[in-house]
Amino acid sequence: MRISARNTLKAKVKKIIPGSVNSEVILEISEGIEVTAIITKDAVQSLNLTEGADAYAVVKSTDVMVAVD
Amino acid sequence: MRISARNTLKAKVKKIIPGSVNSEVILEISEGIEVTAIITKDAVQSLNLTEGADAYAVVKSTDVMVAVD
Amino acid sequence: MRISARNTLKAKVKKIIPGSVNSEVILEISEGIEVTAIITKDAVQSLNLTEGADAYAVVKSTDVMVAVD
Amino acid sequence: MRISARNTLKAKVKKIIPGSVNSEVILEISEGIEVTAIITKDAVQSLNLTEGADAYAVVKSTDVMVAVD
Amino acid sequence: MRISARNTLKAKVKKIIPGSVNSEVILEISEGIEVTAIITKDAVQSLNLTEGADAYAVVKSTDVMVAVD
Amino acid sequence: MRISARNTLKAKVKKIIPGSVNSEVILEISEGIEVTAIITKDAVQSLNLTEGADAYAVVKSTDVMVAVD
C-alpha cells in the first residue's frame, strides 16, 4: 500500500513502552536520530512490532511544524 | 521556548514552495533524509525562513504513524 | 506496507479538485457515504490518483472525533 | 452546532474500551464498515456515550490520508 | 450537535482570508486573544461565516501542545 | 525557539492529571477561558510543568476547527 502522507522514513524499532490504550514506540531513523510515535496498543500487536524490527515512521506534511532558534 | 512535542529534529531548509495560503518547506534532517512540512505562508515570513537556513522539524508523537512492509 | 493508523476504509475516488499546494479528493466509501481528504498536489500525482480508481481512506484513531445530537 | 470539519458520518456506537486518560470507541458507519476513535474518558462521559447509541464520526479533511495498493 | 473535542471556545469571526482550497479564519476569543484556523473554502461557505459573526474555535486536546520559556 | 504553529497563547497551568502514557493538562488562557491539552507523561516531566506555572498553549492553525450554532 502506498500512502499520500509525504513523509515515509525508513527506521528501526528501538523501544516499545506499552500503556492502557496507547503505546510509545521509539524509532531510530539514522545514527543518533530518533522519532517517538504514540500508536494504539492494538496497532503494535497487529503490526507484530518488536524491538529491532525494520519499520517506517510515517508523518503527513501538514503535521510537521518548522521552528528556528 | 521548549515545547511538549516529543520530536524536535535539527534540520536545514532545503527548498520552499509558496502557495496561496500554505507553503511547502523541504527540510534535510541528515544526508539523504528529508522531511516535507506544509505551514502557512505567514509562518514562513514570520520565521524569516530562507533556503540553507538552520531549523528544526517539530512533530507531536501522536502525529507519527508506524508502518511495516 | 501496513500502517498503524487504525482506520483503513476501502473506497473509490469520486472527484479530485486541484489547488496550488493542496488538492481536495472526494472518496466514496459505500453507497451514499463519502469522505473528503485534503492531500498535497504532489501526493495526487505520485499515487497516480484518477477519478474512478480504487483507493483507501486512511485515518488515525486519534484524529476521529465523536459527536451526538 | 455545525462544524467546519468536512466529514460528519452518521454512525452507531458499537463498543467502548476505557483507558486511564483516553478511551477507544468503535463506531459502525454502515453494514460492515467500522471506524475507531480515541477520545478522552471525560468526553465519553460528557457525551453520555453508550453502546448502541446514535452518534457521528467527525474527521477534518486534512486528517484523511489516501492510499492505493 | 455536541462533540468529543474537549476545547470549544466562544469566539467572534474577526477576519477571513480566502485561498484556492483552504481559507484562513481569524477568531477573537476575548479582548486581545486571537486564534487562527485554516479550514476549507467550502466549509466557510457551508457555515455562512462572515466577519463579525459569533462562532466557536474547536480543538481536540491531543492537538494542543504545551510550551514554556 | 520560535515555531510555525500560528497559535501560541500565554497561559497558566491550572491542573495536571497523569495517565499511563499521556497526561491531561488544563491551561487557563484568561479569566474563565480554559484549554485542555493531552501530552505525554515524559513531556510533563521534561518541561518541569507544575500547577500555577507560566506556559503557552500551542496549536497549529490546521488543527483549529470553526463551529456555529
Automatic annotation (TrEMBL), chains A, B, C, D, E, F:
Mop domain location is 2-68
Any GO BP annotation: molybdate ion transport
The family database entries (SUPFAM superfamilies) matched by this protein are listed as: MOP-like (SSF50331)
* Key words of the record: Molybdenum
**Classification via InterPro entries:** Mo/tungstate-bd_C_term_dom, Mop_domain, Transp-assoc_OB_typ1
* Statement: the UniProt record of this protein carries the keyword Cytoplasm: no
Q: Any idea what this protein is called? A: Transporter
The species this protein belongs to is Dulcicalothrix desertica PCC 7102
